[in-house]
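Lab notes, practical 5.
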Amino acid sequence: VAWPTRDALGDLRGNRVGWVLSQMLRDEATRRFRTDSSATYSPVALTEFSDTLPGYGYIGLSVEIPPEKADAAIAEIETNAATLAKGPVWESEVTRITGPRVEAVKRDMASNAFWAVALSGAQADSRRLEFVRTLASDYQAITAEDVHAAAKRWLKPETAWKLKVVPQAKAQ
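Output from the prediction step:
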């Protein structure tokens, strides 16, 4: 299940809030589908805020689950999204995600590989510099209210895109 968002450079902070939101969806899916029902091992959060295609982005969640449980899983993912959009979102959940993310960003920034990728294209689009400058501080400043507002803005049932891939039934 995925929901459209927007591009990265048009809304730098929204991009980071969207990433946190996707991780919250993943964490809830992990609790529901792995911990509670042992239906899957590892739900995957999908977050794409394009830095190339204006206006393109999405937040999504993917689970590999037995085919007979697919419809129920999609319904559960949609319910989880609706719960986040309805609120409340807890500050402790947000900081549990943003704390390690800030530390990872700081570690990444100590490498030449990070800078080679991060500064690529900056001479043509100066917003890429702001993207790098605000990376750690944006994650540090994200609040539960930010995530709740993003969930209300993006996790709308009418915009959700759903894909179910199941094996073809075997001929008898």
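Observations recorded by the TA: Residues 67 and 170 are 13 Å apart (CA to CA). The chain has a mean pLDDT of 92.
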